[in-house]
Every structure is written in structure tokens, then in C-alpha cells.
């Protein structure tokens, strides 16, 4: 009996993994979980991580501490928060970090290319997998990229009807950063601002309209001060992504790294689907609102808009050592998905 017991114990020991670790990780964001690119961090990455570890036979586990909605840092510090280890895992808004991560701004310099956010997320994850300069941008900031985040295609919302691009001439349009390039060629005047300031700027006459996303426009009730919604399709855009502090990453087991890598790519797809669903719902709600006028810019007018733009993407690429290569890779990845860009920026 003693011998059988000893053998059973020995067998149990041999069957156990060589080591089992519990990793205490903080996951955080500057924005609340009501936004898809944050909410999916909680509902998918956090919710699925340990189940995935168990599914692959790993005894490792993650003990999560969750801090969303700016509890640890604001939107202007997302890159540094992950870089400095304020959080182990976090959402980083590269749209605010152009000077530090210029290659990640590519979509804002190549408008009218792709409207589908889910497809764009595939493209941007592919670029990060195939273009070393994309991943090196994260590594230089002491972090590992997991998966892309983004927003749906941009449109124009105004306090006057827009039937032609000529209607925008001389108008003050809220279009911060690179978005100013999209309208200045039309004779419009770009005005700086953000979703949190747009309502007051439109109400007080600082601006006559804005170029923005429906998923931000509708919840902020901007249709009350800009009731003319003109659907244009200026393009979906990459805004950043989820990343892990590099020092934290290096201390994780292969199993945990594998699972987080898989969940990061899934995060991109799931949050993109949620954004697209919200977009469709919000557009329909505005169509049903008698106080809001929703129209589509005529095809010939959209073509005029595209043709009027200077070579924005070429200028962006010329300022970066590998700009031409990344631009070509981006455009080719879009075309490989059966999308015909409104303008082939890499062929100019």
C-alpha cells in the first residue's frame, strides 16, 4: 500500500507543470469602458486570458487590476503611462503622438482610401507584423504592441447645407491636426478643437462645422448645433492600440505572451465590429430625427474633393526615412482586400 501511495504521489508530481506562476498585471486606459476600444479590453482581454491559458494546458494565471476612465493618467499621457510602467497593459493613443510615432499616423495622411474599420484593423496589424519600423516605434517606447484600435470613416457636419464642395469655401471647419489638410484645399478654414470642445465652438460661431466620426458626433449631441450631416466617406483611421510594458512582457512566460498576443489581434476585430455597429445605429437615428438632415455628397463632388487635394501622403512619406516603403505596403494591403482606394497615393 505504501509503495502504491508513493508511486501515485510521484506520478502526480510528474504530471504537474514544471512551474506555475500568477502574474499581477494592471490594465488601464485614459478613457472609459463605454468606448469600444476600451470596453473590449475588459470584456475580451481580461475576461478571456485565464480561460485561454487553461485551454492550452498552462497552469499560469493572471491576476488583473483594472483602472479605466483616466483613474491613473489622462489622454495626453497614454504612451508614457505604458512606457514608464504606470500600467502594465494599456491603450495608447498614437493619434496624439505623431512626433514620437510618425509612422503610426499614416492613415491621417492618406484620406479617401478605406471606409471599413474592420478591414483597416487587419491592414494595420499586418503592417505591424511585416514592417519592422512600425514595431520598433513601440519598442523604442519600452513596449510591445498587441493590437490595433481605430475609428470608422469620417464625414462632415455643418450648420448649413452642403450640396457641393464649393459650399465649404470660406467656412470655418473644425478639423484638428492632419485633418486640416483634408479641407484647406477646398478653400475652407481649418479650426483646432476636440470632441469635448466642438459643441461650444459650433454654438458660439467659432466654427461653422466639423469633420469627425459619427460615433463621437452623435453621443455628444453635436447635431443640435450642426444639424446638416453630409456623408462623404473620408476614410476610417488608425488611432493607436493596446500595448504591454516591455519590462513586464520580458518577465512573462511563453504561455502568457502567446495568449496576450492572440487576444490583442482579436481585440482589434471585436472592437471594430462594435464601432461599425454603433455607427450604423447612430446614422439611422439621425435619419429618423426630423431636426437633422442627413444627405450624401454626390459622387462627382466627392471626386472633385479628392482631386483637389495636394499630395498629402507623398509629403508625409518624404519626411520619413522609410515613408515610401510603409506607404506602399499600406496601399497594397488595402488593395489586396479588394478595396479600390479613392486615390492611389503611392503611385503619384
Structure description:
There is one protein chain. The chain has 13 helices and eleven strands. It is α/β, with parallel strands linked by helices and 348 residues long. Strands 7-6-8-5-9-11 form a six-stranded mixed beta sheet. Helix 2 links the parallel strand 1 and strand 2. The protein is globular, with a radius of gyration of 23 Å. 42% of the residues are buried. The model is unreliable at 1-17 (pLDDT under 50).
Structural class, by secondary structure, is: alpha/beta
Largest sheet: 6 strands, mixed
What is the overall number of helices? 13
Low-confidence stretches: 1-17
How are strands sequenced across the largest beta sheet? 7-6-8-5-9-11
What portion of residues is helical?
40-55%
What is the tally of beta strands? 11
Q: What is the approximate shape?
A: globular
> What is the mean pLDDT?
94
Order of SSEs: HEHEHEHHEEEHEHEHEEHHEHHH
Radius of gyration: 23 Å
N-to-C terminal Cα separation, in Å? 83 Å
Strand content: 15-25%
Which labels suit this protein?
5-stranded mixed sheet, disordered N terminus, alpha/beta, 13 helices, globular, 11 strands
Question: What is the secondary structure topology, with strand pairs?
Answer:
Layout: H1 2-15, E1 22-28, H2 36-55, E2 61-67, H3 78-83, E3 89-93, H4 117-130, H5 132-139, E4 143-151, E5 154-158, E6 172-174, H6 180-184, E7 189-191, H7 195-203, E8 209-213, H8 214-217, E9 228-231, E10 237-245, H9 246-250, H10 254-288, E11 293-296, H11 299-308, H12 312-318, H13 323-336
Parallel strand pairs: 1-2, 1-3, 6-7, 6-8, 9-11
Antiparallel strand pairs: 3-10, 4-10, 5-8, 5-9
Helix pairs in contact: 2-10, 4-5, 4-10, 4-13, 12-13
